[in-house]
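FAQ: What does a ligand-bound record look like?

Like this one, built around thymidine-5'-diphosphate:
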Amino acid sequence: MSSTPYLIHFNSIGKSDIGYISIAEKETLPFVPQRIYWTYYTPEDVKRGFHSHYNLEQILVAVAGKIIVTTEMKNGNKQEFILDTPKTGLYVPKMCWRIMQYSHNAVQMCIASDTYTETDYIRDYNEFLK
Ligand code: TYD
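The answer part, i.e. the structure of the complex:
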């Protein structure tokens, strides 16, 4: 567990003439995954996210396309991450406000530390800052 976002570099096995495979072994992740979901076909002019979680931790991977992720911690620490390779994930800790923007072909895989609970969301920015 960590309190700041950081990039995770997954191994990539293969070569250009046969293609590649990347693997996320649970031992190499900052939490044991409980749920995986993916988002896609997000229009380029749409920004998503605009929330934080009380307890959920996540790893975002652009398995295709490009995702620009802006993160903000309660202490005001703001960062921008460009996810444009399936070899890299972004660890998003709990209590982290995030905004994502996607290229037209982006497919975002999210590896999550827990099951879905709407009550774990903070969707009000002022509530997040409190
Ligand atoms: P949300 O997490 O707000 O997506 P984003 O941050 O990408 O905009 O989820 C979008 C909608 O999908 C919201 O109405 C809740 C619903 N949802 C589920 O029902 N189950 C899930 O596991 C997830 C992640 C979302």
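Follow-up question: can I read anything off the structure? Yes, for example: The two ends are 22 Å apart (CA to CA).
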